[in-house]
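Q: Structure tokens for this one, please.
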Amino acid sequence: MSFSRESKEEILKTEIEDDTCAISFLSGLFHSCGQISKYGSKIYVKIVSDIEKLFDFCKNIVKKLYGDKVEVEIGENYSINKNTYYEMAFDVEKFKTLLLDASVIDIVDGDITFDASVNKNLLTEDEQRRAFIKGAYIGCSTSSIKLSSDSVQSCGSGYHMEFSSQDHQFLIDLSSVLAEYNIIGKIFERKNSYVLYMKDVNTIQDLLALMGANKCVLDLSNEIVTRELRNKVNRQVNCINANINKTVEASMKQVEAINIIINTIGLESLSDDLQEVAVLRLANQEESLDELLKLSTIKLTRSGLNHRFRKIIKIASTLEE
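A: Here is the predicted structure, written as tokens:
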């Protein structure tokens, strides 16, 4: 299950008790993913989502607020890119009161249109604003976050969450509501729609916590620790590999220089101190300077040993010339 889907389903586990908050939730949901359609003489406001639990959640709200007489129509499901989507249709004639309460439709001279503006009167209280954000999040949010525990492959280092809508003003209004909780996103245009996005992981955590998705907040915290630990280990391994490569390269250069001397003037032509380190290197070609110092019978510092090898390399270079 994707991180985005898991967070939405976690939010839907908590019922909305307050009636005004339930209306605010529906308002956020309708504005984020609702659309108005006409079939013959009937006009519907439709919600399409791949979160099946959403529809029972909405039906319970409708039943609680408007009674059993009003029945929500559930359309046939269909699949896109292996995801199953579900359609919920609200007959405007039957649900006129609900749709007006949630500020979803405008009725002017008998003409019914979709009301794109967000009614600030539905967002006067903290719990109302939280409910509105929940509805908007479930309706039009997506995330590219992948948890390491859900994948055998290494996950990317980035964190990205976004709200997508064709209504620019809706995202501006939503951005303003989120800003009241110091949750700051950026809006840009993408083809025929607009996107409000966040890339800061702390901001994403604050958003999830605001909506009550506490398990997902914890999962994301664990992911941060996992990625930091993995990056630290990778840096250490890279450092070790770099040191090994450096040691091998230096050793090969020293052995090559010693062989040049052997094949030209012979090791016996070198001073005793240079002969000793040359023999030591030939016998221990894979060891680092620190390991050679431990094997040496004479007292030398690391810089002193390195200095002698530089002399040998210089002599070999002169012989080659």
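A few notes: The chain has two domains: 3-212, 244-320. The two ends are 68 Å apart (CA to CA).
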